TrEMBL record:
Protein name: Thaumatin-like protein
Family matches, as CDD domains: TLP-PA (cd09218)
Native organism: Daucus carota subsp. sativus (Carrot)
Cystine residue pairs: C41-C252, C89-C99, C104-C111, C160-C242, C165-C225, C173-C188, C192-C201, C202-C212
InterPro entries found in the cross-reference section: Osmotin/thaumatin-like_sf, Thaumatin, Thaumatin_CS
Superkingdom of source: Eukaryota
Gene3D superfamilies listed in its UniProt record: Thaumatin (2.60.110.10)
Membrane-spanning residues: 6-26
Amino acid sequence: MSNHLIHTFLRMLGLFLIFNFLTFFFTTKVDSTSFRIVNQCRYTVWPGILTGADRPVINPTGFALKPGKSKTIPAPNSWSGRIWGRTLCSTDRTGKFACLTADCGSGKVECLGSGAIPPASLAEFTLNGDSGLDFYDVSLVDGYNLPMLVVAKGGKSGGCASTGCLADLNNGCPIELRVSSGKRGVACKSACEAFGDPMFCCSEGFNTPDTCRPSVYAQYFKHACPRSYSYAYDDKTSTFTCRGADYMIIFCPKPHTRYQLIHLLLMLSYMF
């Protein structure tokens, strides 16, 4: 084979390899999803992140987010876990970090594999689940501490609706569920945490959809935040799906509303 033919063959082979590389580069889907966590509160929030069992961990697992700031975190598309906001946090003289609401108990800003101590508003995700869909919700099953909104951006199918709780429930929280700092309500417990009754916890003899019904306390959360989970079997109106989206998790989304009177109105509705 002449040098000219060898040179021509190598040149064509090189062009072929370059073409295939560019085709792969531009047509292959990037195997990740992004979470943009936004703080619209008038105070600092310390987001916490917990990855589900046997799933790839995303980092950081906790950080400070000042008012008006945001942070974008990439996650593999098989990720599953929870994202929440901690409030009223500080570091003591020994260097131990702790928060008055939704603390993860790690003693540090990062949660390091620990979940939120109730009460806490939770954004829950399972990416690339059944039929390739992402499943997500905002849960108040473990109580409430912050208004929160989840927004799917750029989704290709699956509904991709926004969900969350826009209401500020802390000051309107029933007194028997309220967590206070001084005279100010800072969080609202679930009835399960407050009373430990299996009827409220959907446990023991109440561990099926037929036997565990929404209590008056679950209805308090549901009336204020109709798209959020209010008790364990609140799936039909509270779980959302999307395919191929990135997600915004917004603390204190605007406008958020105070619900001092909702408990009274709910109690009245049960009387008539």
